[in-house]
């Protein structure tokens, strides 16, 4: 076969492969997220399947299915999640059996394997102290990322820690009917849980266990010092800071934004990401498929400083996933005074208060191009940085956290003299906004180290 024919066949094979990928993604998305009102029969089938696993003795599988169904948002899924959460976690013996099974089932990932050998490495980063414990007051510590909630049970004496510390859980994904969170439903002292979706807030309130919700989330803890406004020219029309992952929906974004061609506009678009379950080459192929590859500049695995510089040059920051956790890239953009456009129906379709006339707007698949045009013609009239500094910063979140916990402590007859310090979420772990405070928590981290199960003998 001559080279030109080989290349032609290769291009044809790539097009077919890409169409198959797009078709699969569309089918999966439709099943997971679309037309949820008509999926009650699937939820009824899930009830039968879950009970079948319970009666067969595979309770972990049973509850994992209920978690998956709850997270979908399908008609009836909320009631299913609440039903099985009560079934398992209102009974301490069932809850303990399920939690132990889940702990035993934790698998190391490429980025977490070190903690199985050296769980102490979770201290000061994954497990972070916000307030010291002393003879008069309980301390406060925070656990970051849902994956590590069970790891905390696995490697630390949680009940002894709760004697001297209040624990705050910061989950990484929406949909709180999951063992990692509910494993704290029957501990000896109240545990606080960040709730950033109304649906999850209602779920935790209705369960009414030792888990107490606080209406803040991970995106509140962006380090605004890393995302300042500069004097750069805004020469990038659209930026999308999103991992190379299928759930980020780059293909759907390209399809929706390609309609700008009808207006004779060729925007300058920047993508910032890193490989997850797809790669940069696939992203470029998707862009080429929708005829927008000439509009793109791609940056992979760059630093916070470089991301901030690009955000400062951008007019519009787009979030186009249908479901994820509490996205922080749009808040980082707001701190750089970059207007945000979020996809309508994100997660459970809540109309978030931080998307407003000062910060940006919602858009759908059919009107993204029109919404982008509106912002490009008026981006100077928005003031997202001022809004997030006033309403949604790490300082504001810490004040809310401090107020709720201190009020509960005083109502319980306990002292509260020293307030919480401010922490921030960096790319892979937590840190302190004021790095000098780390020194004051040395004794706390030393005490927590003693309560590693392997150190207790």
Q: Tell me the span between the first and last alpha carbons.
A: 70 Å
Q: Give the total of beta strands.
A: 13
Strand order of the largest sheet: 8-7-6-9-10-11
Please identify, by name, the CATH architecture of the largest domain.
Answer: 3-Layer(aba) Sandwich
SS-based class: alpha/beta
Count of domains: 3
In angstroms, what is the radius of gyration? 24 Å
User: Which CATH class of the largest domain applies here?
Assistant: Alpha Beta
Give me the number of helical elements. Answer: 18
| Major β-sheet annotation | 6 strands, parallel
**Approximately what portion of the residues adopt beta-strand conformation?**
5-15%
**CATH topology group of the largest domain:** Rossmann fold
State the share of residues found in helices, binned by percent. Answer: 40-55%
The CATH superfamily of the largest domain is identified as: Glycogen Phosphorylase B
* Low-confidence spans: none
Topology diagram in text:
Blueprint: H1 3-33, H2 40-56, H3 59-72, H4 77-89, H5 92-104, H6 113-117, E1 127-131, E2 139-144, H7 147-155, H8 158-164, E3 165-170, H9 179-182, E4 191-194, H10 198-207, E5 211-214, E6 236-241, H11 250-257, E7 269-273, H12 280-289, E8 296-300, H13 304-312, E9 314-319, H14 329-335, E10 339-343, E11 360-363, H15 368-376, H16 384-391, H17 394-411, E12 423-425, E13 430-432, H18 442-450
Parallel strand pairs: 2-3, 3-4, 4-5, 6-7, 6-9, 7-8, 9-10, 10-11
Antiparallel strand pairs: 1-2, 12-13
Helix pairs in contact: 2-3, 3-4, 4-10, 5-7, 14-16
């Amino acid at each position: 076969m001559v080279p030109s024919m080989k290349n032609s066949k290769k291009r044809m094979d790539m097009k077919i492969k890409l169409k198959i990928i797009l078709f699969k993604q569309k089918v999966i998305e439709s099943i997971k997220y679309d037309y949820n009102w008509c999926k009650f029969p699937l939820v009824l089938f899930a009830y039968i399947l879950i009970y079948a696993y319970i009666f067969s003795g595979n309770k972990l599988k049973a509850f994992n299915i209920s978690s998956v169904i709850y997270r979908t948002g399908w008609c009836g899924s909320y009631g299913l999640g609440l039903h099985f959460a009560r079934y398992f976690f209102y009974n301490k013996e069932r809850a303990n059996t399920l939690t132990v099974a889940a702990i035993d089932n934790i698998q190391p990932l490429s980025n977490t394997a070190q903690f199985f050998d050296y769980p102490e490495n979770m201290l000061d980063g994954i497990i972070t102290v916000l307030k010291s414990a002393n003879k008069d007051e309980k301390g406060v510590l925070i656990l970051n990322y849902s994956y590590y909630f069970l790891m905390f049970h696995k490697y630390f004496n949680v009940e002894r820690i709760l004697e001297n510390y209040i624990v705050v859980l910061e989950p990484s994904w929406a949909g709180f009917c999951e063992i990692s969170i509910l494993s704290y439903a029957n501990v000896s002292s109240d545990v606080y849980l960040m709730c950033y979706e109304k649906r999850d807030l209602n779920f935790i309130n209705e369960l009414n266990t030792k888990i107490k919700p606080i209406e803040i989330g991970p995106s509140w803890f962006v380090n605004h010092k890393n995302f300042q406004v500069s004097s750069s020219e805004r020469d990038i029309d659209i930026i999308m800071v999103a991992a190379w992952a299928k759930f980020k929906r780059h293909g759907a974004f390209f399809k929706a934004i390609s309609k700008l061609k009808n207006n004779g506009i060729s925007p300058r678009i920047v993508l910032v990401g890193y490989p997850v379950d797809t790669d940069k080459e696939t992203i470029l192929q998707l862009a080429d498929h929708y005829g927008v590859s000439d509009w793109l500049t791609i940056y992979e695995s760059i630093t916070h400083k470089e991301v901030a510089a690009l955000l400062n040059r951008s007019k519009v920051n787009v979030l186009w996933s249908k479901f994820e956790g509490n996205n922080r890239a749009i808040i980082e953009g707001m701190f750089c005074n970059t207007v945000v456009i979020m996809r309508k129906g994100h997660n459970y379709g809540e109309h978030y208060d931080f998307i407003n006339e000062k910060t940006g707007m919602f858009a759908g698949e059919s009107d993204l191009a029109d919404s982008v045009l509106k912002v490009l013609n008026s981006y100077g009239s928005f003031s997202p940085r001022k809004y997030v500094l006033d309403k949604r910063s790490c300082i504001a979140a810490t004040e809310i956290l401090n107020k709720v916990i201190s009020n509960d402590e005083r109502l319980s007859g306990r002292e509260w003299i020293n307030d919480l310090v401010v922490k921030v979420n960096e790319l892979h772990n937590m840190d302190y906004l004021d790095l000098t405070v780390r020194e004051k928590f040395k004794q706390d981290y030393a005490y927590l180290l003693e309560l590693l199960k392997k150190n207790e003998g």
